[in-house]
Amino acid sequence: MTVTANAKPGGRTLLRPALAAQRRSLLVLAAWSLLEAAPVLLSGQLVAAALDRGFLAGELAAGLAFLMLYGTSMVLGAWAARHAVTPLAAIVEAARDALVRAVVQARLAHAVQGSGPTDASTVARLTRQTEAVRQILATLLMMVRTVVFSLGAALAGLATLLPEMAGVTLGCLAAAGALLALLSVLFRRRYREALVAEERLAGSAGHAVSGLRDVLACGGAGTATRRVGQDVDANAAASIAAARIGSCRIGVVVIGARIPLVATLAMAPWLLRSGAVTPGQVLGAVTYLVSGLEPALRLFAQSLGNMGVQLQVLLRRLADHTAGPPEPPARPGAVSPGPGHIPSLSLRGVTFAYGPHSAPIVDDLDLDVPYGDHLAIVGPSGIGKSTVANLMAGLESCRRGEVALGGTPLAGLAEPWLREAVALVPQESYVFAGTLRENLAYLSPEVSDDELARAADAVGLAPVVKRLGGFDAAIEQAAALSEGERQLITLVRAYVSPARLVILDEATCHLDPAAERRAEEAFAARTGTLIIIAHRISSAMRARRILVLDGQSVRVGDHHALLRDSPLYADLANTWAAAPAGTRA
Amino acid sequence: MQQRDRLLWQVARSTGGWTSLFLAAALLDAVASLALPMALAAAIDAALGGESTGPALVWLVTLLAVSTLAQVAAELVEATTAARATGRLRHRTLGHLFALDLGGQRRFAEGDLLNRLLQGTAETAKVGPSLAGAVVALLTSVAGIVALLLIDPVAGAVFLLGAPVVWRLARGFLGSSTELTERYQTAYSGLASRFVDAMSGVRTIRAGGTAGREARRVLAPLRELRHYGEALWNTQRDVGWRLAVLVAALQVGVLATAGHGVIAGRVSPGELIALNTYLGYAFGVFRQVGTLAHLGRARGSAAGVSEVLNTPAPAGADGTAAGPPLPAGTGAVSLRGVRVAEGDRALLDGVDLDIPAGATVAVVGGSGGGKSTLAAVVGGLWRPDAGVVSIDGMPLWQADQRSVRDAVAHAFERPVLLGETVADAVVYGDRPVAPEALRGALRDSRAESFVERLPLGPDTPVAGLRLSGGELQRLGLARALCRDARILVLDDTTSSLDTVTEREVSLAMDRAARHRTRLVVTHRAATVRRADLVVWVEANGVRAVGSHESLAADPGYRALFQQPHGDAPEDIPPVAEPRTMEQA
C-alpha cells in the first residue's frame, strides 16, 4: 500500500509485533482470500463460455450449465469468505488486545513515575482510539484482500480471454496507480491537518465545557466563544480542504477502469471482424472490466486512502502514548538487606526543585530519624511537605544530597525491598473496585483474617467492616464510601503491610480528631518508624519529635522547645489552638 | 412538529441551496449511471452485429464523462455543505451554552454535553445531503429493478421473488449485532473505569511498587472483551455466508432466465450484460437497511442538540440581556422570596435576605442544605425560578448581564482554570485586567510564592500542570481578586488551605477588599468569627441570621463546627475532652 508504507516507525512498531505474532492467521487469511477471488477470476470466462457455447449457439442446457458453474464458483467464494472471517477476527482482536495492553501499561508506568497526564479524559480518549484502530484495521484488512485479489483475478481473467486488452489495461492501471500515489501524498497531508484541527477543537471545547460555570462567573462568554469558535472554523476549513483533494480521486477509476472499457469497445468490431475473438470473449472481457476491475478500483481509491491515513495517524497518536517512560537507571549492585535489618533514616544536604529554573522546595536539609522514632512534619501548605515525604520514600530523587536507609543510600537499595520496607499513605486515598479484603491486603497479599481484624480494631475501621458485612464485602465504587472511611481503609492497609517505615502524608485529614488520635496511636504502637505529615497540631503534639518547614530554615525539636525557639511553630500552634475558642461560647 | 424535527428542518432549510445542488448532481450521476448499461448494451450489440460502434461509443463516453463530473461535484458539495452547516450549528450551540445560567448548565453531564456539541452537531448537520443521498440511492435501486423488469419481465420477476428473503436476513443481522455491540461496549467501559480508578491512586501504586499488579487488574476485562468481539465476528460470518449464498442463487437465477431469453430472442447479448449491471443496482436496495439506521441516528443526534438549544438561557445568546447597566453602588444585595428548583426538588425556597454593603457575611450550614446555591443566586450565576435578587436596588436579572459580571466576582472550592497560561487563567474574562492588578491578586491570595516556583513562573502553561487543591484554590481566589468587583462571593475557597495560610489569605483580603461586600461560604469557625454577619442555611432555607456570638447559643449551630468538614463515619463517638484545634 502506498499509503501505509510511509508510516513513521513509531506508528508501525506499535502494530507490528501483534501482526507478526499472527503471521499464521495472516497466511490463512490470504489463502482463503485467494479462493474467495475465484468467482471474479472465472466470471468473464464463464460468461463468455455460456454465451459462445450456450445461449448464442442456441444451446440452453450448455448455457445453463456454465451459469450453474458460475453460481457454484460464487458459492465457493462465499464459503471461502466465511472461513476468512476466523483468521481475520483473530488478527484484529489480538491487535486490539496488544494495543490496549500497551496503552494501559505505558500510561500506568508514566502516571506512576509522574511523567504524564493522569486525568480521566486521557483514559477515555485512549480507549476510544484503540477501539477506532480495531474497527479501521478490520475494514482495512477486509478491503485490502478484496482489492488485491479481485484486481489480480480480474486482470488475470482478462489476460486469458483477451490478451491484447490486458496489456492496455495494465498500462492504464499503472497510470492510475501513479495518480493515486500523487493524490495520496496531498490527501494525507490535508487529512492529517483535518484530524489535528478536530483534536484541537475537541480539546478546547472540552475544556470550555468543563469550565462552563467558571466562564460564566468570569464574564468570559465572549472570550470563550471566540477561542472555541476559531477552532470550529479551522476544523470546518480543514474538512473542506481535505474533501477537495478527496473528490479528485475518482480520476483514478476513470483512468484505470473506464478508459480500458472504452478502448475495448472501440476495438471490438475490428477484433471480431478479424476473427481473433468471439462475441462471448468480448462480453467476458467487458464483464471483467465492469464487474471486477471498476468496483475494486473504486474501493481502493475512495476508501482505502482514507482508512490507511486514518490508521496511520491514529497509530502515531497512540505510539506517543504507549512509549514507556524512561527506564529507571539500572542499579548495579543494589542490595536487599536481610530481614533483621533495622532501617534508620538519614537525610544529608538534601536539595530538591521541580525545574532547573524554579526555586528549590527543599534546600540543604539534614535530618536523622532513628529506628522506632515518631516524627511529625509541620509547615504551611505548599511549602513542600509532600515532597519531603516523597524524597524519604525514594519516590523522588534529590538534586543534591543523599537520603539513606540503614546507612545505604536509597539509590543503592533494590527497588522491591525498598517498596516493601517503606509504606507511604497519601492524603488522597486509593480504594479500588474489589472486595474489602483485596483492598486491605493490597500491600501484604498473604495476611490472615485474624490479623486484618486486629488491625481494623486497632486503627478504628472495625465498625466500617461490620457495616459493610465483613472482609468479603464488595466495594463496587469507591465513591460509595465516605472520605473518612476510605482513609481508614488505606490506613489499615499500611498497618498490616510489612513496612518498617510508615509515612502518613495527611492521611487522616478526613477523620475527626478522636478517630485521628486512635489511628495515630495504633501506628505509634506498631513496630517500626512513624513519620506523620501533620494536618492538625494535635498530630504534632503526640509525636516524639517535630520537624518545622518554613521554606528557608528547618528546625527539629519537641513541642515545648519549638514553642520557644520557632516563631513559625508558635504561630501555627496558636492559630490551630485558638480557632475553636468561639465554638465553645 | 417535534423539537428535533424542527431543528433538522431548520438545518436542512439553511443549507437548502447547497442541498439542492447536491441533489441535482447526485440525480445527474444516477441518471447517467442508469443509462450507461443501455449504452454499453447498444455498443456491444453494434460490435457483435458487425456495425460501426461509433455512435454508441460517443453516447457511452458522454455518459461516462457526465457521471464522473457529477460524482466529483456531488462529493465536493456534500462535504462543503456538511462542514459549513456543522460549523454554523456548533457556533450556535456554543453561544447558547455560554449564555446558560448554572441551572441550565447543570442539566447536562460534562461528557454528554461535549458529545452533543461535537458529534451531535456533525450528525445533525449532515441531514440535508444524507436525506438527499438516501432518496437518490433508493431511486437508483428502484430504477435498477424497473430496468430489470423492462429488459426481461421474467428475469425481473425472479429477482422480486427472492428479494424479501434477503431483506429479512439483513434486518435480522442488524438486531442481533446491536445487542452484542452493547455488551462489548459495556466490557470496554469496565476496563476504562478500572483504568481511571488506578489513575486516581498513582501515588499509592508508586509507593507500593504495585504497578505490575495494577496493570493486570485493569486488563482483567480484556478476556470478556475478546469473547464478545469474537461473538460479533461469528454473527457477521454466519449472516454474511447465508446472504452470499442467497445473492448468488438470485443472480444465477436472473441470469439463467435472461440466458433463456437470449435463445428465445427476447434478450440481446448486450442486454444480458446490461441486465447483469442493473442487477448490481437492484441489490443496492438491501443497503437501505443501513441508511434507515443512519437516518435514525441523525434524528437522535438532532434531539440531543435541540435539547441543549431549547434550554432557556436567561442571559441571551450573546451573553447580554437587554437592560440598563446596574447603577453605581457599594454592593448591597437583597433577596426576596427566592426559590430555586432542580426538577421537582427545591434547592432553595422562600429565601429573604439582606446583605449590607461592605459587610463580610459568612454562610454556614450542613452539606446539601443550599449554601452553594445561595452563593450562586446572590452572584447572579443562577436565575431563581421565583423571587427577586437585587444589587444596589436594581433587580439583577433586569440589568445588562455584563454589568452584573463587573459587579460580582466569584471564587469556588474547585475552580477550573481557563486560558493557556497561569497568568491567562487568572485574568480570564472579556474585560482586560491590568498587570498590576494581576500581581496584587497573586500576592493577596498567597499564590505568588508557588507560582514563582513553577518552571516558567506565571507564564507556565496550565495544560499538564499538577496543582494541589490548595494551590488551585489560591489561583481561583486570585482570579476573583484581580477584578475590581464590588461584591466577592467566595464559595468554600479555602477548604484545602492549612489554617496558617488561610489566616494569611484572610488578613490580606481584609486589606485588599476592605470596602467590598463579601459573602463567604465556609466550614471554619475562625472564618466565621471574623465575619460581620452569619447566615445559617439549613434544609434549603435560611434558618437564622445574626452574629456568631448570638447564634452560638443554639446547640445545633455549635454542632456545625464540631464535625470535620465532609462526612465522618457515624460510628465514631464524639470527642468529650476540650477541643484543642480547629477541624479543617
Ordered list of secondary-structure elements with their pairings:
The complex is a heterodimer of chains A (585) and B (584).
Chain A: H1 2-5, H2 9-21, H3 23-36, H4 38-55, H5 60-113, H6 120-161, H7 163-210, H8 212-217, H9 221-246, H10 250-273, H11 279-322, E1 345-352, E2 362-369, E3 374-378, H12 385-392, E4 400-405, E5 408-409, H13 415-421, E6 422-425, E7 434-435, H14 436-440, H15 449-459, H16 462-468, E8 474-475, H17 483-495, E9 501-505, H18 513-525, E10 529-533, H19 537-542, E11 545-549, E12 554-557, H20 559-565, H21 567-578
Parallel strand pairs in A: 3-10, 3-11, 6-9, 9-10
Antiparallel strand pairs in A: 1-2, 1-4, 4-5, 7-8, 11-12
Helix pairs in contact in A: 2-5, 2-11, 3-5, 4-5, 4-6, 4-11, 5-6, 6-7, 6-11, 7-9, 7-10, 7-11, 10-11, 15-17, 20-21
Chain B: H1 3-14, H2 16-48, H3 54-99, H4 102-105, H5 110-125, H6 127-151, H7 153-200, H8 202-208, H9 211-219, H10 222-264, H11 269-283, H12 288-309, E1 333-342, E2 345-355, E3 360-364, H13 371-378, E4 386-391, E5 394-395, H14 401-407, E6 408-411, H15 422-427, H16 435-444, H17 448-453, H18 469-481, E7 487-491, H19 499-512, E8 517-521, H20 525-530, E9 533-538, E10 541-546, H21 548-551, H22 555-559
Parallel strand pairs in B: 3-8, 3-9, 6-7, 7-8
Antiparallel strand pairs in B: 1-2, 1-4, 4-5, 9-10
Helix pairs in contact in B: 1-12, 2-3, 2-6, 2-11, 3-5, 5-12, 6-7, 6-11, 6-12, 7-9, 7-10, 10-11, 16-18
Protein name (chain B): ABC transporter ATP-binding protein
Subcellular location (chain B): Cell membrane
Transmembrane segments (chain B): 21-44, 56-74, 131-151
